[in-house]
Every structure is written in structure tokens, then in C-alpha cells.
Amino acid sequence: MASQRGEGETTTTPAEPADRERARAIPEAAVARLAVYLRVLSGMADQGVTAVSSEELSQAAGVNAAKLRKDLSYIGSYGTRGVGYDVEVLVSHIERILGLTRNHSVAVVGIGNLGHALANYGGFPGRGFPVTALFDVDADLVGIPVGGIPVNHIDDITAVCLEREVSIGVIATPPPAAQSVCDRLVSAGVQCILNFAPVVLQVPDNVEVRKVDLAVEMQILSFHVARRADEAASVSAGIGPAGNNGLGVDGMVIRP
Amino acid sequence: MASQRGEGETTTTPAEPADRERARAIPEAAVARLAVYLRVLSGMADQGVTAVSSEELSQAAGVNAAKLRKDLSYIGSYGTRGVGYDVEVLVSHIERILGLTRNHSVAVVGIGNLGHALANYGGFPGRGFPVTALFDVDADLVGIPVGGIPVNHIDDITAVCLEREVSIGVIATPPPAAQSVCDRLVSAGVQCILNFAPVVLQVPDNVEVRKVDLAVEMQILSFHVARRADEAASVSAGIGPAGNNGLGVDGMVIRP
DNA sequence: TCGACTTTGTGCATCCGTTCACAAGCGGTA
DNA sequence: TACCGCTTGTGAACGGATGCACAAAGTCGA
């Protein structure tokens, strides 16, 4: 019965007691940005950069400098006034807060086009997320290794997930199967789900779902295309505001 | 030079004049939800449902009923008090606002694992987004059809995008190539970009970028795993609040 | 040792989005 | 026709996130 993860909290890093209340207080939007900062910082570290100011980092991450400092302040005060931040220090603290000091075993369900792509990443981008199990309904796929991992039958989800202590389930199935797969993952003790299926999943309160919805993304872009067209029409009709939208097609203006 | 899309605004639907100001006022979050409502409504229509109340629709979409009504109010008043909404009517109005009454030609750049998956969708989920061009740097791939469309060399982006009036560019390249590809798309007149590369793109003001970042999604989930572990530790130590988090592993509790 | 300069961390005002609560409006019924 | 119950649409309160501006705090050079 090795499913209740993180029971003993010996997580390599000292784990200061204040972290608990801190972690609970960090707004979700800030968490997402912290992940971005982490990537930028890692890149800097790889290039030998050892120190960085909030100004530099914020530009590289594409956010406001004040917002960046506020985000960092959620996890503690690790900067030096008049100097900036030590890249290594910041990286390790963000990793700690994001829970990246331990590995998170990932299961991918649905080995179609997308499932293949995900499995072949072999450990998700930005290590620490080893894919340890693959599932599909198709009996012909079972046993065949994809990205080095053999595909299991979907009926074995519970057993396999418990055995391999899967923390994160990725749903890459067709829409009709998604809710059923989700239910099975939940009953296997998986509390975090990344859902690629265009379906609104119903889950218990203690399960965290994040969805990646290509159709929605495309439609948001479509909305902006339409809005642009409308604005252009308004402007050319002399209705619109004196906006500074230079709609030049040939311009390759890159913002500094 | 047929690049300035939507010049004449004969968009099949009457296109009420008030729409312009409306579209500009709709918050982005609401736009994303409208896309979700649209999908749910389409599903209902397929099942022969003709009318729906805000309560029903909001449950199916997993949002607050009041929020749903406010979202719908952004696009106009198309409900009937005491009755609800006509499914067909709502579908057509949401489609109109989202600009789905016309097709949006899509180009996918980077035909690796993900690019393959995207190309093979053959017209993105939820029609209206035909993939009309594929690009890659690899000369070995050029000419080979993927999902029925031959791959072009990346150097031909500008010409091909202009010719096929691409409105939306999808970047599925490795990180180092992303910015360069983005620049080329922009100079080809593409104003909407969906970016799968874990890179912060720099673009001019008139270009809309949406990013899908798997690493960030995973790390947000990781954060929640860590937070859970901390909370569990606090609770078992008698520190935490009397939260109702029944961490039962066997429970398959589906919220109504 | 002292002062000038740089950059962090944060209180505060502002803005945007969510939620509540209720009046307005519509269909059905007597 | 007049009433009743139901559901929409929205004004207003609320809460959370964003951006500003500045004090606190450190480094560097004289």
C-alpha cells in the first residue's frame, strides 16, 4: 500500500517550517510565472551567468520587474539589495517551492498521435518528470514499447499506477473516453491530472486538474483575428480611436 | 499582395455594428470560457437538445451560473427570461463573436513528434482551422506529405504563408529555433501565433501570442503535489486547519 | 569611516474579474 | 386579463492581482 506519497517529509532539502504557510499563499498565476523564471534562470546558469537583477530577469521572462520581485518575495528574500539575485540560489529555491527536488512519476493514457509524441519526449521537458507508464485500450498496442516504455492495457491502470507510484496522470485519449479514464486514475490514487481531451472533467475536490485545450486556444486566436479585422474596418471607416496600430505587413519590428 | 485579411467585412452574418465595441470589451478569460460553452452547446445540439438554462449549461461547463450569464451578456441578450437559451441561437452567436464564421488557415512549423501529431489532426479539433502548410528545416522531410500536406522548407515561409493566406502560425520547433521562426512568421504577415516551444517570444505589439507550455503545466502540478504533501504532514502533526480533505485512495467520489 | 549609488522588498492605490442578489421580463394558468 | 413562478440580465459589493513609488539595505569607492 505504497500510495500515500510524501508521508515522511525527508525531501533532501531542509524544508523550512515557514514554507508550508508560504506555499499555500502563493497565487496560482505566480506559480506559473515562477516556472518560467526557473527556465530562464536555468538557461542563464548554463551560460555561466551567476548573478542577475530583477530588471534583467523580468525582461528575459517578459514580465514587469515589480511583478517579478513580488513573485519572488512569495518564496522568501533571497536577493541582495544593490546587487541582485544569485542565479544558483534562486534556481534551487524555486525548485524547492515547486516541488522539483523529487521526481514525479508520470503516466500517459491514450497512445495516439499525441500520446506518442508525449511518450517520446522521454521524461518531460525540464527533467524531473519521468514517464513510467503508458496505457491504451487497443490490445494491438499492448506490450509494444513507445519511447522505451511498454504499453499497458487500460484495465491495469489501478495496479500499475499504484505499483509505480504515479503522481501525475496525462489524459491524451479521444473525448468520449476521457471521463472514464479520469475516474480510473483518481481511483488509483492519482491526484494531479493533465488533460488534453476537450472535455470538462468531473473530479473530487482533492484532485487537481489542468487542461490543455487546443481547440480553445485556436478559438481565442480566432477571436483576436476577428477583432483585428473589425478594428481595421472601423479605422478605415474613420470610426475607431487613434490607436497606434501600425498594421504594416513587411515590418519585422522586434520589441527590445 | 493578398495578405491584409478581412479587408472587406462581408462575413456572411449581418455583423451588427455594436459588435465592434463589444468584442473589444470582452475579457480574455471570458473568451476562453465562451469557447468551452460553444463546445458543450454543440454537443447538446448533436443530441437533439434545443433549449438550455444557465444553470444546466454552467454545470456542464464546470463554472458558476452567474459567471456564465455574465459571459453570455458580453455578446448580447439572446436568452428568454423564465425559459432559458435556445441552443442553436447561442451556438451561432458565439461562433460569430469568436470569428468562426470564416476559416482560419493554419501553418505548422517544426515537423517533429508534436508537429506530426498536430498535422495529423488534419484540421484542428473543432473544424474551421484547416492546416494548409507545414514547414521544417530538415531537407529530408521537405516534399513528404504529413497528414496529406507536403512539408515545405522553412526558408519558404514568407512566400507560402502569403500565398495561402495563413492567419495562424503554430510553432512546434525546438526552443533555439522558436524566436527565429516567430520572426519569419511575423514578417510573413501572420498576426496570431500558438507557441509550443518553451521560450518567451518577443513580438511586435500587433501580434497575438498564446503559448502552450507543457513544462510549466507539469511544474504547476508538481507544486500542488508538494503543497498536498506539506498539508498532509501538517495535518498529521496536528498543525493544520480542520479541512475536509478526505484523502481516501479508494474513493471514486464523483462530484455531481 | 562615510557617503553616494544601486537594487531589493513591500505598503498602497488601482484595476479587473468574480460573485451576490434582485429587479425586470416572459410563459403558463385560472 | 391578471396572477404566479421561473429565469435572465445586471448593478453593486467583493476579492485578488497588478503596477507604482519609496524606504530599507546593501556595495563600492574615496
TrEMBL record, chains A, B:
<keyword id="KW-0238">DNA-binding</keyword>
<dbReference type="InterPro" id="IPR036388">
    <property type="entry name" value="WH-like_DNA-bd_sf"/>
</dbReference>
<feature type="region of interest" description="Disordered">
    <location>
        <begin position="1"/>
        <end position="23"/>
    </location>
</feature>
<dbReference type="GO" id="GO:0003677">
    <property type="term" value="F:DNA binding"/>
</dbReference>
<keyword id="KW-0520">NAD</keyword>
<dbReference type="GO" id="GO:0003700">
    <property type="term" value="F:DNA-binding transcription factor activity"/>
</dbReference>
<dbReference type="InterPro" id="IPR036291">
    <property type="entry name" value="NAD(P)-bd_dom_sf"/>
</dbReference>
<dbReference type="InterPro" id="IPR036390">
    <property type="entry name" value="WH_DNA-bd_sf"/>
</dbReference>
<keyword id="KW-0678">Repressor</keyword>
<dbReference type="InterPro" id="IPR058236">
    <property type="entry name" value="Rex_actinobacterial-type"/>
</dbReference>
<keyword id="KW-0804">Transcription</keyword>
<dbReference type="Pfam" id="PF06971">
    <property type="entry name" value="Put_DNA-bind_N"/>
</dbReference>
<feature type="DNA-binding region" description="H-T-H motif">
    <location>
        <begin position="36"/>
        <end position="75"/>
    </location>
</feature>
<dbReference type="InterPro" id="IPR009718">
    <property type="entry name" value="Rex_DNA-bd_C_dom"/>
</dbReference>
<dbReference type="InterPro" id="IPR022876">
    <property type="entry name" value="Tscrpt_rep_Rex"/>
</dbReference>
<comment type="function">
    <text>Modulates transcription in response to changes in cellular NADH/NAD(+) redox state.</text>
</comment>
<keyword id="KW-0805">Transcription regulation</keyword>
<protein>
    <recommendedName>
        <fullName>Redox-sensing transcriptional repressor Rex</fullName>
    </recommendedName>
</protein>
<feature type="domain" description="CoA-binding">
    <location>
        <begin position="99"/>
        <end position="200"/>
    </location>
</feature>
<feature type="binding site">
    <location>
        <begin position="110"/>
        <end position="115"/>
    </location>
    <ligand>
        <name>NAD(+)</name>
    </ligand>
</feature>
<dbReference type="Pfam" id="PF02629">
    <property type="entry name" value="CoA_binding"/>
</dbReference>
<keyword id="KW-0963">Cytoplasm</keyword>
<comment type="similarity">
    <text>Belongs to the transcriptional regulatory Rex family.</text>
</comment>
<dbReference type="InterPro" id="IPR003781">
    <property type="entry name" value="CoA-bd"/>
</dbReference>
<dbReference type="GO" id="GO:0045892">
    <property type="term" value="P:negative regulation of DNA-templated transcription"/>
</dbReference>
<comment type="subunit">
    <text>Homodimer.</text>
</comment>
<dbReference type="GO" id="GO:0051775">
    <property type="term" value="P:response to redox state"/>
</dbReference>
<dbReference type="GO" id="GO:0005737">
    <property type="term" value="C:cytoplasm"/>
</dbReference>
